User: What shape does this take?
Amino acid sequence: MSEAGRALAHVFETGAIAAPTARGRRAFLLRAEALPFKDIDAEQSFRPDFLRLKAAGWSVVPRLEGGAYELGLVLLTKHKEENFANIARAWALLAPGGQLVSAGANDDGAASLEKHVGKAFGLVDHASKFHCRVFWLDKGERAPPDYWRGLAGLQPVGAGPWLSQPGIFCWDRVDDGSALLARYLPGDIAGTVADFGCGWGYLSHSLLDRCPGVTRLDMIDAEHRAVEAARANVSDPRAKAHWLDLIAERAPTTYDAVICNPPFHAGRAADPTLGQGFIEAAARALRPGGHFYMVANRGLPYEPLLNAHFASFETLADNNKFRVSRAFR
Assistant: This one.
């Protein structure tokens, strides 16, 4: 359980707020994790966490719809816009007079967010515990700012044709690494291809534009919000989006080529093991003779992994920040 989750549980355990299911209150939890509550509807769009909750017996979906809940709980993230969006969605899910409780780590800006929420709605009370802030309000006449409500769904990325939403890596711009990889994808990629960690679909769209020989493209991401955006951005009938955790779940089929801009951060720290999982997943999913195209921060130690899992590899581009590699199965 995260520190924010512990702090959220604490305010109920101490009686500062009535327990989630007290008096039969219908309750939900956004960005859910396994808290010591029962009979609560959970939303978790990150596939690994979704699967863990499912295995623990929770009622969990990637996106809650409907409304008329009497109690809403939100675990905050380090991303301000995502928190604005989740609070706006939580407010919409509540019945009039319903109670909304949010909890987040101080290091992730929870105190600043509390001020924004207090200014937008007015707060009933707050508490501090485990280096976290917990604050709550009752749903009255005041609605979330239009900007927050806009963030709760797909919206344009800059002036381009793309749609995205908070909760996705580089949700509001084209990532520099993806842009570099797109420039170095050869036009002769053909057959059955996958985009591992597709995000909101920029690389997939670029690949299909550049490579007429592609007959099928699987866009795969562990974040359901990314899958929603990729479906909206890539309308080519050759493409299909999949919500999968490639580290723990098998890819839909075997591929002639895989393209990938793997995640490399867990919290605030670079974590090379995330990219390692994607490299290993690509090696498993490629047919013999297949190609793997990857961009990564050049300081991450991926060359030994490519050497261990592929017959050979080469560097296609290196701009002192990112390196584009092509590996041969």
